[in-house]
Design goal:
2 copies of one chain form a homodimer.
Chain A: E1 8-12, H1 16-27, E2 31-35, H2 39-48, E3 53-55, H3 60-65, E4 68-71, H4 75-85, E5 94-97, H5 103-112, E6 118-119, E7 122-125, E8 145-148, H6 156-168, E9 173-176, H7 179-202, H8 215-221, H9 228-237, H10 239-261, H11 265-281
Parallel strand pairs in A: 1-2, 1-4, 2-3, 4-5, 5-6, 8-9
Antiparallel strand pairs in A: 7-8
Chain lengths: 285, 285
């Protein structure tokens, strides 16, 4: 399936990400439908003109009519949905997702899925500190990464379609990784950083610190404001990779502590120069 | 001494901070002089009109003429300067500084200082990733904290003058702390955050990570680009307080690791809610 505007797209889970998908895709002229929990989300999206139809029920006409179904749900809800409702999908439908962890759901879903439907997993690396379709934006994906994580079960056509979807959505960098590579990378770049931020934010309850806070502390704790339901699930779903990254971080932190304790200025300066050089790689291009 | 514009101000060390002091104070009409290492810094500042005179030598007329002397030097250079050159200071001069650690220099300097000169310590909590007078700015202090850390040896008049200087410079929050309180606070809010950033930046050398880096990793590592000479000295100068903060952080990080390993979702969610609530306190007002 090539993504052309005659295709019908269904978004299951109309929150920040699902709503932002709808906003961008509607502009291209696709027929967009949505299934979500809250009637207020459907009404908001209809009023904004970013969906053509929507329901809080398992509307068989909507689900059965969709050529491309995008699941923007929590990992375990996504798995449950497929188990319970995949019978409603159209034969030949392509399904994809936005889940931030891959190994723990990709194989589970591909293994249980009907053979006349294909699941091509993807992770749009975009988000905000706020949630809900009311905060969705068609600018959310500019500058961000979209990663497709195909397995041996995927067809070249589905991979191509999913990459094309990422480009249509406006992601600046659209690429593929294996589920394993993805989960290691996300364990380091995203999950470990959230672990550090919430630890820093909770390790010292001394009062009045906020009066003296400068930009560096604020930068390191911006993501300490966190959706506890979602992130605890994502951490557990990537447990082995994240534990491994936490251990790598802790080992290096202990090295630095030992340098400080022994006042080994040369070793500290070497580590700082390494840090400075490596950070230059990560500047926004 | 009350800061009025008939007073002559000398800045020793004309870098980013010293230059920014000069920029702001010159605007009020003070006579500003500078002693610094590089002739090019003096020439730049004269051309910009932010100092009236300057020298790379220990110019006795300049030093002996100053009513207020601001030391913007590395901690050990500051201590050496006072030891070697305090004889050149005018009787009755008030001296202050910009040093980011306090206990390790404040008592040393106050103990060795001539009795007809007073040292009132201060820490302007402002900086950038770049250095040098060429990067100085009269906007550097807006939104930032200025902390005076008096001891029993200081006179009320000197404390008042130093607080007034902080307000003149344009700091948004001007306050006092004891040297001990200051060093604990800075160990947590500034030094620990730098330790975390350089650790995160150096703990995983896997290639191509930068291709997938999002805002959260960039935020946590912005300060991983670090002046190794200055920060290694500051770390060692505040060693006990920083080691203590590093241990508090590590203990909490290990707690989180244990929650993840045992998949204790409830405990993780509780920690995340605590983090979210506490972070709200630290929002920019």
């Amino acid at each position: 399936m090539i993504v052309d505007v005659s295709k019908k797209i269904l978004i299951v889970g109309l929150g920040l990400l699902g709503g932002s998908y709808a906003r961008v895709l509607k502009r291209f002229g696709f027929h967009i439908s949505a299934i979500t929990k809250e009637q207020s989300s459907i009404e908001y999206a209809l009023n904004e003109g970013i969906i053509d139809e929507g329901s809080t029920d398992l509307d068989e006409k909507i689900i059965g009519g969709a050529d491309l179904v995008i699941f923007a749900l929590y990992p375990h809800v996504f798995v449950e949905w497929i188990k319970d409702n995949q019978k409603l999908l159209k034969s030949g439908a392509l399904i994809t997702d936005v889940t931030g962890v891959k190994r723990s759901i990709v194989y589970k879903i591909q293994d249980m899925l009907r053979t006349d439907v294909e699941f091509i997993p993807a992770h749009p690396m975009a988000g905000r500190e706020v949630s809900g379709v009311e905060n969705s934006s068609d600018k959310l994906f500019s500058g961000a990464n979209y990663i497709v994580t195909p397995t041996e079960k995927n067809t070249p056509e589905a991979i191509t379609t999913c990459l094309e979807l990422g480009r249509l959505l406006g992601f600046s960098n659209v690429t593929t990784l294996s589920p394993q590579e993805h989960d290691e990378m996300i364990g380091f770049l995203s999950q470990l950083t959230h672990c550090i931020a919430i630890t820093l934010m909770t390790c010292n309850d001394k009062e009045n610190m906020e009066k003296f806070t400068g930009d560096s502390f604020r930068d390191l704790t911006r993501i300490a404001r966190i959706n506890d339901l979602m992130w605890s699930e994502l951490f557990v779903a990537n447990k082995d990779a994240l534990l491994n990254q936490m251990d790598m971080f802790m080992d290096k932190f202990k090295e630095l502590r030992a340098m400080l304790e022994s006042e080994d200025i040369d070793a500290m300066r070497k580590m700082m120069r390494h840090s400075t050089e490596r950070r230059a790689l990560f500047d926004k291009k």
